[in-house]
Amino acid sequence: MRPGPRNAITDVAGLRVGSASDPRLVSGATVLLGDAPFVAGVNVMGGAPGTRETDLLAPDKTVQEVDALVLSGGSAFGLDAASGVADALRAAGRGFAVGDQRVPIVPGAILFDLLNGGDKAWEANPYAALGRAAYAAASQDVACGSHGAGTGATVMGLKGGLGTASCVLDNGVTVGALVAVNALGRVCDDEGRFFAAPWALGESLGDAPGRMPPDWEPFGTAGPREATTIAIVATDALLTQAQATRLATAAQDGLARAIQPSHTPMDGDLIFAAATGARPLPDPVWDGLRLGHAAACCLARAVAWGVRAAAPGGLLPSWSERFG
Predict the structure, then answer these.
(1) Which of 8, 28, 57, 84 to pair with 110, CA 20 to 30 A apart?
(2) Rounded average pLDDT over 168-190
(3) Does the pLDDT at position 22 exceed 80?
(4) What pLDDT score does 221 carry?
(5) Domain of 290: which CATH number?
(6) Can you give the pLDDT at residue 266?
(7) Is residue 78 in a domain?
(8) Residue 219: what pLDDT?
């Protein structure tokens, strides 16, 4: 495997990412858009998820493709970000055709960032507007760190953030990951070495694997005790919805490698998988196995990039403030 040219999920051709943030709110939203509808699946392993339209992603459901996927802060309020994206898609003439109507299919997931020090005393839910702004900002450039759904994210003892990574397999298939890292657990050891370092592809994620401290309690102040890391893995491979669901399941290993502990009762850890279908897999069984491994590796790297790029300032120190 080697990193893609951008080392971002947008190395998968036909995908764009947009993020919008509110610095007063200390929160935001991120959208993954396809130039055309794409196959999607989902896997949830955390104990406290918050979701929209994930039931529709089961392989036995009628609609087999989606128009966009949304990651948002704001806990349950943040689900409204997907409504803003759906409104923008409808205005653009996108969506599942039902008679003379178009219904955009926009599954979404949220993380808990309500205790991160931002001003949450709104009178009207701000997340639909953030979703619309993220849609309008969509491009092939993906900003890591304190952007979009990662704006107010935290991990144990540090700021979290929005991260991305990609890889190209030797069969030409591209895999990418996008993650809002907002975990109850830790992502690095006491020297700042990321647990994801063994899966780096020439990147500077530490010169040695991160070591689990004797006690995984924080470096200092823990910060919020509710969390949720939400992510998307994507590929240009031709997958069925069942295969996309399996890809999302395999990618959960990336969170387990990069975050210790992960999938806790207070995390809603969720992964979407997206497949644009541009490249048929010569061997669906063997290539599917390699695809799942690549997705897990990409996601682990994306977790580290999201935390490493977090901006200084806020309730908790950023990685650069503590270790940079």
Answers:
(1) 8
(2) 94
(3) yes
(4) 46
(5) 3.60.70.12
(6) 77
(7) yes
(8) 45
Q: Which of 132-136, 150-154, 221-225 has the lowest mean pLDDT?
A: 221-225
Q: Is residue 4 part of a domain?
A: no
Number of domains in the chain: 1
HEC string for the chain:
CECCCCCCHHHCCCEEEEEEEECCCCEEEEEEEEEEEEEEEEEECCCCCCEECCHHHCCCCCCCEEEEEEEECCHHHHHHHHHHHHHHHHHCCCCEEECCEEECCCCEEECCCCCCCCCCCCCCCCHHHHHHHHHHCCECCCCCECCHHHCCCEECCEECEEEEEEEECCCCCEEEEEEEECCCCECECCCCCECCHHHCCCCCCCCCCCCCCCCCCCCCCCCCCCCCCEEEEEEEECCCHHHHHHHHHHHHHHHHHHCECCCCCCCCCEEEEEEEEEECCCCHHHHHHHHHHHHHHHHHHHHHHHHHCCCCCCCCCCHHHHHC
14 is in which domain, residue-wise? Answer: 9-323
